[in-house]
Amino acid sequence: xxxxxxxxxxxDLESERTREFISYHNKRxxxxxxxxYKGFVNRIRRYYCIPYIYGFKPCDRGVYVVQRELDGYRVxxxxxxxxxxxxxxxxxxxxxxVITDVYPSLDGSRLGLSYSIAGSDEGFLKxxxxxxxxxxDLLEGCVGNVVWVGSDRYYYVRFYRSGRTxxxxxxxxxxxxxxxxxxxxxxxxxxxxxxxxxxSIIEPWMLDRLFxxxxxxxxKSIVYGGYRSDPGTWRLLxxxxxxxxxxxxxxxxxxxxxxxxxxxxxxVVRVGEGVFEEVIGEQGYPIEHAIIVGDRVxxxxxxxxxxxxxxxxxxxxxxxxxxxxxxxxxxxIEFYREKLILGVESFSKPLSLYILDRSGLRExxxxxxxxxxxxxxxxxxSSDGTRIHMFFVKKQGARENGVALVYGYGGFGISITPxxxxxxxxxxxxxxxxxxxxxxxxxxxxxxxxxxxxKENKQNVFEDYKAVLRHVRNxxxxxxxxxxxxxxxxxxxxxxxxxxxxxxxxxxYPVIDMxxxxxxxxxxxxxxxxxxxxxxxxxxYLLKYSPYHNIREQDYPLTLVYTxxxxxxxxxxxxxxFVAKLMDVxxxxxxxxxTVSGHLGSTPDIKIREYSDxxxxxxxxxxxxxxN
Length: 628
Prior knowledge:
alpha+beta, 11 helices, seven-stranded antiparallel sheet
């Protein structure tokens, strides 16, 4: 293992030397795939034609929806009677614009739009007057999480990526501001909250109240609450130490929270005078969402990485359960008066909106499509005996080609649950198998599952993934490992440790250099999950698995590392340096650098181009035949 960093110069993205490196490798990659990518463009476009909902928020006028379409992103108003009205297109906002969220005022007359150029984290918050279409306000930077006070005043959260907050705390850090449409604003929450703490504003069903959640990384939080109109009333409600606590609502004047202590699955408690009373105990599966509307507590549980939805009284009495005919993900839950609006997604169907009220559960808005997939579930055993769950997804009636794309993530408490497979559909049509692995480090089995794969336990994640690869290979499949961001770290680390488990490795927008990640962009924030390279004890275990520092001469699989110059979350230098070092040991590695794509993605035409290139790489590398 070498501590040398001969390619640190590749972190300077503006240098001519780095640009020449990128240009050389992009040409080399294009030379490898040739014209093969052309056969995938229209096939992927066919699925990108199907509208995909990225975000939604209800108000008096209906539900504002952010929807990806073939020509970009569009904001729609789906009225309560089902009539759909166009509000704004990403093309109206500029070239390569990605709209990420909407924030309507309570009456729906004002609308906040979060968007960025080419998927950068840094972007814009624009407030528009819906009736006139005129701009009412504009903010730049990492700003969002808007909560309205009336129709002319709102709270928002600003993320400081560098420098210091107004109260002198080093970035990364967040602060809450109140702002009116005249441009006057002041900081109302977060003074002296330390570095690496994130702040969220959460609206409960009782609209005169608010919650503030302050999180340290992804494993600890505290909750404040008070009146929406007066930040001076916001008081600490719960601090349970080194555990996550989340607010879910008020019933009358009593706050309700979820505590992820004990076994880490989540239990609902209500806050009394200095006491916490358990209302719904742990059920053996983690709570992913919970909300109070009226006198009911609505809880979405994850059962083997698929959502189950239950209804309780505010005193904890079980009332009802809603099941779906296939494994699904409940991505988010919003409310409007006595209604719940659920965003539900599956492998075969993009996110759709469902309404739940006293008359039952019904689909409200979404694309009418079903890809005709077969979904099954299997288990394997990791190196320490831990059982690992996975989904197997294939196209009904397709002739199997013996190749499996094995997707994993394993970090930050993020659960990998059923997702619409639009970009993977051509591979499934050609007889491929998609395997989705639920690894430690995620949240699929609660907070303890997360902690078993973070910091000094990170190697568990790689061992889990190795077990999945072996399980799939033992069935006779060739294996393509695929992961992005923290998932890119997963593939890179596993590949460096046991390259024989891969036929192809796909490493996207990755974290690779575990000794310098904290010095690049917002990497310092991730020390709460990975550990701190500047701490000698953390540095010791980080060095053991850091892909960049463990490259050695051995037989590597055909590898594609891809990133985007607009990625201002994970520095592209991670990918560039990794490729340079792999080239030194004559590994069969290729690099693709997109010039107009960031960590949040990009416009549909850019993503179609990126996926077409990736599939050309796979099909060329494994000599796979297409059916179309």
